[in-house]
Amino acid sequence: MPIFQTAHYVIRPDGVDTVKAAIVEFVAYVAENEPGSHLYAAWQQVDDPTRFVHLFIFDDEAAHQAHGASAAVRTFESVYQPYLADGPVRFTDYVELATNQPRR
To answer: What is the rounded CA–CA span in Å between residue 22 and residue 86?
Structure first.
């Protein structure tokens, strides 16, 4: 069963460029190395560039666990955590109700 999740966080202004570069590198890693990560998208808020949201769709719990256990996650965390401005990353799980995307 797919897992739908978001992650929201705020970065101090002095860390925005560093975190953005780390996001690009990290998402490229996910695309190349995590076939069970059906979707991994990272967005930056237009009217407040210190705010970020990541959207995940994992094929199943095994893919979710593999993602979370990767060294790449720990490396990414080591970049953004020193710049967190509004508490820890807030992860939220969802149930899909409808989509215009084809099923895998």
So the answer is: 19
Alpha helices in 1-104 (DSSP H): 16-33, 61-68, 71-80
Tens of pLDDT, residue by residue over 39-76, are 999 999 999 999 999 999 999 999 999 999 999 999 99
Domain that holds residue 49: 11-87
Query: Could you give the number of structural domains in the chain?
Result: 1
Q: What is the pLDDT of residue 104?
A: 64
Does residue 102 lie within any of the structural domains?
Answer: no
104: Cα within 13 Å, side-chain hemisphere: 11
